[in-house]
Every structure is written in C-alpha cells, then in structure tokens.
Amino acid sequence: AGSGAEDPAGAASKSEPPAPAPDDDVDASAAVRDADKALVAVFSLSGNTFSVAERIRDATGADLFRIETTNAYPDDYDQLTAQVQRENAEGFVPELAAAVPNWDEYGTVYLGHPIWWGHLPNVMRAFLLQHDLAGKAVAPFCTSGGSGIEGALADVRALHPDANLLESLALTRGSLPGALDEVRPWVEKLRH
Asked: Can you give the three-state secondary structure of 4-40, one letter per residue?
C-alpha cells in the first residue's frame, strides 16, 4: 500500500532471515511434472509478490492469474491495516473479482501472496475456498517484511488437507529485486 509493503503491521525486523526452504510436511518425492499445465495464481497489492509471480511465469511458461477483490483495498497503509485487522477479527472473506477459468486443466499451481500477520491474507482464503487443490502439485511462494511462510502453509493445509504442497519459496521485500534471482533455481529444484 502506501509504504510499498505487503505485510501490514506485524512485520518482523528486516534482519530476520526468510523462512527455511524445506517444509516439514512436504512430500520429498513430489515434484512439478513437466507435462502438467501450470498456473501462477497470485495476490499482490504493492507489486512485490507480483514481481515474483512474473519471474515464475517467465521461468515456467505457466499461465498467470492475478487474484483480485471486487472492492479494492485502501492505498493508505494505516487504513489498509485497520481494514485488515477488522476483517481478521470478523473472519471476513472478501468477494473475488473472478475465478480461474478452466481450473481443472491445471496440474501445477504456483500459489503466491504476501504474508499478513504471519498468515494468509483473507483474499487467499477466499481463493482457496473457491478452488480445490486436490490432485494438484502446489508450489507456495510469498513475500513478507520478514515473517516466515509457516503460518500460511498451515492455513493452506487447514483449508485443503489433501493438497500436495511442494517446497515453498519465501522472500523478504527488503531483499527484492535481487532475490528474484532465487526464483529460477527454486523452479528447477521443484522439477526434480
């Protein structure tokens, strides 16, 4: 929003390292299958997470889908923070502008978002309530002010316990744009 941050309130110190790459509950034998049609589904307000999504699209040839709400979030950081806090307190799930066309055609989904208060933004909850991850290889990626991805992964597992989650990629906004160079090696590792 106004500050360019995608981690409203609760961002950890910039000196905190990003989350470790391997996830405890990831199936080590799972990998992106080259024959699968792939999608990069991303929610991004300031553009940080979207820049990672574009890099993934360029590295994979995947389709790109931007997750957006029907009602825009405020540009002012303080107003955005207040609104998100209200949404979190009320368990609010915003209305999305669109669903992914031909969702069932995709075997691999690169799922991207900022980390808000250590968890998925409610926009992502709305997306995951509309889109079933069963049978898909899901490669989560995020940007944050320093918070790790663990809370968001737990949120995904709670909504889709049968999701085939692959190794995630977590980048801090302070490391961008240089950290975009980490995308291609991550994508390549997922293919093996």
From this structure: CCCCCCCCCCCCCCCCCCCCCCCCCCCCCCCCCEEEE
